[in-house]
Design a protein that fits this description.
alpha+beta; minor pseudopilin epsh fold; five-stranded antiparallel beta sheet; 1 helix
Length: about 150
């Protein structure tokens, strides 16, 4: 009887956990996409000092910086803190477990935008976020900087 009850509970909990992981991965994707678009807009308004997004896959983090001071994050407009995001910490605390599975950023860990919002590389950039066995890819076109978000797989 006990085994049957545990099996039923497991059958209810496992799908819920999968839905929670999808929601967490979707939230991480939206956060990153919003931050990329912010960096792009900032680049367009500060054409002489473009903005870069510097990724650290090992630390599951990224920061938005000015090209003139790549080691110092710009100030986040919402909270006045350095514009740094680490999955599982601070404003991304609920996104624990999200990682960067793949970064295709033109040979380095930096995504830069030009004065018109275009990328600083000739090929599209792709960033793949993962949580467990699920993943989703954000693609940024090189000529316009337009973002597209793939399906969660």
């Amino acid at each position: 009887m006990v085994v049957a009850v545990l099996a039923i509970l497991a059958g209810l909990v496992v799908p819920t956990m999968g839905a929670a992981d999808r929601a967490r991965l979707r939230a991480a994707t939206r956060l990153l996409a919003a931050d990329l678009e912010y960096a792009q807009a900032e680049s367009m308004s500060h054409g002489g000092d473009p903005r870069l997004v510097v990724f650290d896959a090992r630390e599951r983090s990224y920061r938005v910086v000015a090209a003139s001071t790549p080691d110092v994050p710009i100030t986040h407009p919402g909270d006045g803190q350095p514009y740094e995001t680490r999955f599982g910490v601070g404003r991304a605390a609920d996104l624990l477990g999200v990682t960067f599975r793949r970064l295709a950023l033109g040979g380095d860990d930096v995504l830069g935008f030009g004065a018109w919002g275009e990328l600083d590389q000739t090929d599209a950039a792709t960033i793949t976020l993962a949580l467990g066995d699920r993943e989703v890819t954000i693609t940024v076109t090189s000529d316009t900087g337009e973002l597209s978000i793939g399906e969660i797989r």
